[in-house]
């Protein structure tokens, strides 16, 4: 039986690292992947996409933010599974194959992995970042405080979007956090402890440039989703 297709969506906006992200997606050992690069109205570094035009689907759109770029890619996707790769991050060569196999074994709808930080020169920084939660209650409580899940480590079945909806395009920075909070009342998050993602830390990353705006948006998302997560926590206690 053939393995399901995985659609890797790469949102791109003025990112000088995008070629490395695309190359890591092209080098996957998974037998059936499609790569969709969504140019979210870039004004710089578009020439970096040129070598990959025959190997990837490139979607060009007006700038609307990462959530809108992800949604545009999802709407063009043909795969049964979705993976997100930020344009400044890098997948390990076996990332898709191993995570898909893990999900099929567990019959999982959603999974995420450990990850390794890299710098501007792709050098490893520190030890792998692993998320160990002793139980669901601790996981839920942690999510109420902030978002420990790296978006580029996520894989999920496409049908989740039919159930939950797409990323909220009104959220410029925390669309991922909002999505996970919307999902957890309905789906169990499975965790693969292997660091299959290289997450790049650099001076121009959004989490550093927009720290205050992100903090305000996090508070907005938490206020919106707090009650449903608190109900889950109560369910784990009683």
Q: How is this fold's topology laid out?
A:
Blueprint: E1 6-12, H1 18-26, E2 33-40, E3 57-61, H2 66-76, E4 81-84, E5 90-91, H3 95-106, E6 110-118, E7 124-129, H4 136-145, E8 155-157, H5 159-164, H6 175-183, E9 189-200, H7 206-209, H8 211-237
Parallel strand pairs: 1-2, 1-4, 2-3, 6-9
Antiparallel strand pairs: 4-8, 5-9, 6-7, 6-8
Helix pairs in contact: 4-8, 6-8
The averaged pLDDT comes out at: 95
Radius of gyration: 17 Å
Q: Helical content, roughly?
A: 25-40%
Counting H and I runs of at least 4 residues, what is the number of helices? 8
For the largest beta-sheet, the strand count, sense and barrel status come to: 9 strands, mixed
> How many runs of DSSP E, i.e. beta strands?
9
CATH topology value:
Spore Coat Polysaccharide Biosynthesis Protein SpsA, Chain A
Order of helices and strands: EHEEHEEHEEHEHHEHH
Give the tally of structural domains. 1
Walk me through this protein's architecture.
The chain has 238 residues and is α/β, with parallel strands linked by helices. It has a single domain, classed as Spore Coat Polysaccharide Biosynthesis Protein SpsA, Chain A, CATH 3.90.550. The chain has helices at 18-26, 66-76, 95-106, 136-145, 159-164, 175-183, 206-209, 211-237; strands at residues 6-12, 33-40, 57-61, 81-84, 90-91, 110-118, 124-129, 155-157, 189-200. It is globular and about 50 Å long. The mean pLDDT is 95.
Short description:
The protein has 238 residues and is of the alpha/beta class. Helices cover 37% and strands 24% of the residues.
